[in-house]
Design brief:
heterodimer, A: alpha+beta, B: about 230 residues, alpha+beta, five-stranded antiparallel beta sheet, 5 strands
Amino acid sequence: MPGSLGAMPVDQNALASSLEQLSAAGLSSDHRALEENLGRVMTAARDMIQVDGVGLMLLDDTGALRLAGATIPAGMALERAQLRLDCGPGVDCVRGNETVTVGDLAASEDYAAVWAELKDDAAPVRAVVSVPVLVAGYVAGTLNALRSQPREWDEESVRAVVAYAELISVLLRLGATAHE
Amino acid sequence: MPNIDPEVLAGSLRRLEKLGTGDVPGAVADVVHAAVDLFQVTGSGLMIADEENSLHYVAASNAPSKIMEQVQSHAGEGPCVSAFVLNRVVHTDNLHEDARWPRVRGPFVEHGVVAVLGAPVRLGGVPVGTLDVYLDRPHDWDDTEAAALERYTDLLQATLSTALAAQRAGELAGQLQYALDYRIVIERAVGYLMARRETGPEQAFDLLRSAARNQRRKVAEVARHLLDTGELPG
């Protein structure tokens, strides 16, 4: 990939472009700006990691995991199914504070219940990687990268998702700073 | 662009607030650490200038970054010093073969710092420090990587501006204000010397630094003297 270091999947051209948009938009402390900046990072992550979609789930002040947003309807469906069933890669990621990768949901014994909910949808999510969003060492939620075709996740792709989860963490931390 | 649910976001921020995660220096450190994964490098660091115009780390991802600070601060040269003085992105692809900074090259390589990309960090258009990323192996940095790092410093600058504005930024805000105050006078003095002596910025800065060392005075004091009298002291 041009502009990336070695065979890594983060395209530096695209990264520069998305960061430019982010800083041009400013890091205003109001919630509306924060919502927009989170959306920008998610869109950039989708484009640069070259996945079909990304979803974000966040823990609220009662400790409940909630769906913050997703770039595709199939992602919304997956996140909702996980929350309804209290089961899924995102749920396990937050619970265990660890990255969870699933190459094919349809073949996963652990998440058979989730796949049962999704399998009749049009173009359901098949491959997922869930990375914890850590703020000051605390799990704040999970960023999920999604593919509609089964595919194993390589180390470079996972590292790129981690990088975008870190950007989301920065935005949340600044948001919390302004919130206090 | 996805619509982020405002209620969910507010709930998340309330939780983070309860956990006490909203410190600004912590957010700045997060930005610096995130650079390692985003740029897929060995390490990263943010250095802010003091009144001697020496760069000091306020956040570094690992130990070699700390060594880079000590060596460059002592020698008064290095890729980050150049990025700061020249106020533009500076890179070295392979320090084994790059003779531009003879005093820092050996210690850098010894500690696994081989390829460095440094960008000036500015506040209000004035450079106050540098953000650097490095690799432990030779690497041909290209224009896209330089552009990406510059854009990343934009994000860092926005974070630092928030730090300056925040009531709880504490020591970091002090460091930034200090860098900003001294940098303006030093930059004006460097510009004056460049015009008077028809020299480049690095040489002009070196003249200032040498005069300060000979006089056992601070660089900022010497710069102020120059601007007041039109002459270097001594």
